[in-house]
Write a structure and sequence with these properties.
mainly alpha, about 65% helix, about 150 residues, 4 helices, 2 strands, two-stranded antiparallel sheet
Length: about 150
């Protein structure tokens, strides 16, 4: 009798673990910025959290026991998060007109609340995290099917 889930290679496990670690650090960072630093999230920040927080859970649950099928659900969620984070980054950089800002109430989505090294903003950090997760899951998907 063959196992339901074939044993993963160490490279597959490392890819999924890396994606989970990025999602976990991003989730904890988002919670730290709002709960400890007191930075109130804007509407676009909430949409990115809606995409990132489940990734930390889904990818973590898929590690033990290893289940590469999580890519089927996690990759579309990470792609949506990437699109929202890219839009938010372009908005903060002033490349999207201020008329297209989705924030009606609460903190402005175009406002820079935290800046590291003079150019790293929270939306850019989010975009980087989502993009890395997409790349890692894409590689995992290609190794799984190939």
């Amino acid at each position: 009798m063959s196992p339901v889930h074939p044993a993963p290679s160490s490279a597959q496990w490392a890819l999924l673990f890396s994606a989970w670690l990025i999602a976990l650090v991003s989730t904890l960072g988002a919670l730290f910025s709002s709960e400890i630093m007191g930075l109130e999230p804007c509407v676009l920040c909430w949409y990115q959290r809606i995409a990132m927080f489940p990734l930390a859970l889904m990818l973590g649950f898929a590690l033990l026991p290893f289940d590469a099928r999580v890519v089927r659900y996690a990759l579309p969620l990470a792609l949506v998060g990437t699109a929202i984070a890219a839009y938010h980054t372009l908005l903060v950089w002033g490349l999207v007109p201020k008329d297209m800002v989705p924030c009606g109430q609460g903190p402005s989505c175009a406002e820079v609340k935290l800046e590291l090294l003079g150019f790293i903003t929270l939306p850019l950090l989010s975009l980087t995290a989502f993009a890395l997760i997409v790349i890692l899951l894409w590689i995992l998907k290609s190794r799984k099917s190939g």
